[in-house]
Specification:
The complex is a heterodimer of chains A (155) and B (170).
Chain A lengths: L2 H28 L1 H21 L19 H42 L11 H16 L6 H8 L1
Chain B lengths: L19 H36 L1 H20 L5 H9 L6 H20 L1 H22 L11 H18 L2
The chains are: A mainly alpha (155), B mainly alpha (170).
Chain lengths: 155, 170
């Protein structure tokens, strides 16, 4: 039962890497924010094309849906903006350590309380330890070898 | 390395001795900013998934990109011109695929999040991210610089996989 969504999530990880590399490549040509604009525009057109071909579920009713459900796109743009600001000040590595840690923490909080329309999944010690291990692993797997050196620069 | 969105390589401002205080403040703001944007990523994934449950996963992806287009247009409107478009289209055409991948990403996360929850989904994505970035860096795809696999990456990968198993544990 977990297998299908888990496989999908893993493929999402692969797509995320491709997308980030493409973004970085386009960003070095025209700048981060403009590349984000181009991305969103192409995405909108692509999704519109798929919907036109009838790949949606034909239930495009927006009445009665909480307005903040529509704000996902805004958060995405702010994320690009903030990340671009951060990278030039603290470097890509520290930025992604901050991103990863707060992503994991926030998602544990969202799950625990069932925020933003999600189902509540209570945190237990196993989940917390697993989350910490993933975080440690993400730091260790990053490109620069010496974290102590990065922290020295920073503090 | 992992889970940044659209992080572009930039110049290091460095620490000039006279500007020590200002630089530290800058760095503090940058850290807070990137912590906030990490939280934003988790929130936006949940919001898109909740919208997906209401109006359909592809529809939700469309809305997210449409709203994102409008907002990012406000950010770039001052210095957008034909030259930008020319530069975009002059480069390899596959650079435009970022948006296509973005739509697929939102659709997938909209399907997965209601089934597995945010933490499990993100843990899977982050671990897969480490694996695929290691592969991508090894070969330097999309004309980006190469980074060879080192021991740290292998250890990091193993730690994340153990962590992933624990997060999955019910």
């Amino acid at each position: 039962m977990f297998l299908f969504p888990a496989t999908l999530a893993i493929s999402a990880g692969g797509i995320l890497v491709m997308q980030r590399l493409l973004n970085a490549s386009l960003g070095t040509r025209i700048g981060g924010m403009k590349s984000s604009f181009v991305n969103h525009l192409v995405g909108t057109l692509f999704a519109l094309a798929l919907l036109t071909f009838g790949l949606g579920n034909g239930n495009f009713k927006i009445a009665g849906i909480p307005i903040h459900y529509f704000m996902g796109g805004c958060f995405g743009v702010f994320t690009v903006y903030l990340a671009n600001l951060a990278v030039v000040r603290i470097g890509a590595m520290v930025t992604s350590i901050c991103l990863t840690s707060s992503q994991l923490l926030t998602s544990a909080i969202i799950d625990h309380f069932g925020l933003f329309g999600g189902q509540a999944i209570e945190n237990n010690s196993t989940r917390i330890i697993g989350m910490l291990l993933i975080f440690v692993g993400a730091i260790m797997a990053s490109k620069k070898k010496k974290l102590s050196k990065v922290l020295n620069e920073l503090l | 390395m992992t889970s940044g969105v659209g992080v572009t390589p930039g110049v290091d401002l460095g620490g000039d001795s006279g500007m020590r205080h200002a630089v530290m403040n800058n760095k503090l703001y940058a850290i807070i900013g990137s912590l906030v944007s990490g939280a934003f990523i988790a929130i936006l994934m949940q919001l898109n998934a909740s919208l997906g449950k209401e109006i359909g996963v592809l529809e939700s992806s469309f809305v997210a990109h449409f709203v994102g287009t409008l907002l990012s247009f406000i950010f770039v409107v001052k210095n957008i011109n034909l030259n930008i478009l020319k530069k975009t289209f002059d480069g390899p055409k596959y650079l435009l695929l970022g948006g296509v991948f973005g739509v697929m990403l939102v659709v997938i996360s909209n399907i997965v999040i209601p089934k597995l929850g945010m933490l499990v989904t993100l843990s899977l994505v982050i671990t897969a991210d480490i694996i695929f970035s290691t592969i991508a860096d090894q070969f330097g795809i999309f004309s980006l610089p190469k980074f060879k696999v080192n021991r740290g990456r292998i250890f990091g990968l193993v730690a994340s996989l153990i962590g992933l198993a624990l997060v999955f544990w019910r």
